[in-house]
Known about the structure:
By secondary structure, this protein is of the alpha/beta class. Helices cover 43% and strands 13% of the residues.
Amino acid sequence: MEYRMIEKTGDMISPLGFGAMRLPLKNGKIDREKAQKLIYHAIDHGVNLIDTAYLYGDSETFLGEILKGEYANKVIISSKLPAINVRKYEDMEEILEEQLNRLQRDCIDYYLVHAVDLKAMNRLFKKDLIKFLEKARSEGKIKHVGFSYHGPKEEFPSLIDAYDWDVVMVQYNYFDENVQASVEGIEYAASKGMGIFIMEPLKGGILAGKMPDEAEEIFKKANPNKSNAQWAMEWVLNNRNVTCVLSGMNSLDQLDENLEVAHKTTPLSMSFEDLETVEFVKRVMRNSLKINCSTCGYCMPCPQGVNIPECMKIYNEKYLFNHKGFINPSSMNYFQYVGGVMGHSGNAGKCNACGRCLRKCPQKLDIISELKKVKKEFEVPGMKYILSFVQVVGFPIYRRIVRLLNR
């Protein structure tokens, strides 16, 4: 694995980093045994950056528990200050102390201000963010500083110039090449010697899973042995300005696949033909995807209980895979995962347009309007009777009925 250097810090970083936001779960909590095996396997095979955050549930505490002994000094830890939780200067100091305790460390290697745009950052500047960062560095509690960006590309250069940052984390994948920071913004940050950490390289899994038939055919014709996920990861790592791609891997198969790509891909190593193949697939995807949602979950929790990411994911899949008819795999998934078949309902129809999700969405989506589309698509008259029927006959039988009807 060819490590990549951050000019401003001198650190050599593995091109693949372990994102600890989507660790495997068991009964709603981190599956500690499985997650530990994954992280140790990643480290044993060259991964030296693990990214977490204050808002990633139990992630920091879990990492503090397992990164001991021989693994204590094998990784660089990146964590984040939750901008949304800061009301006064003292909040920043208290949060950092709590994070150090959770991680069982005296110092966090890379400390990023979490999920900011220009407005959020200006608010934090007024709370003396710079004073806090400088003080924490002088006390040895953090080494290097940066921010994770969730705003429009027009604002990005202003944030880069606002302080002498060491690193920035941005969303970047072949589908979203020009959203948020954009490829030009990444190049600008890199020109200042900053490290570039990438989030959402697979767009919340959309670029790794089943794609429209036309897109699948394009990829398979170009290379039948390469998976959709490998194409997406290779495309990001091909960018010479990218330091590290963070992936939320929750199985050994996913991890080994990404490790293979990270070992093989060096900057500017993709052929013109392969880059052209990705461009063709991107065009197909753009013609199919209805809502530009990465399912990151920053819009959650919804006060009304709407499972916003899942609603949008199912809606997108209906059009990506051309599911037609009243009863189809997408409507079946809607009933199962958000409709209430499995006990908990998080359907789009529960939205009361309170607007809390709007200011938290990194994509700046009009979530209220999008949920109305989802409701219109799936929540047909008589939905409650369909749900009652499914609950009576049982979901496995309902699935078999749907398969028969769609033959």
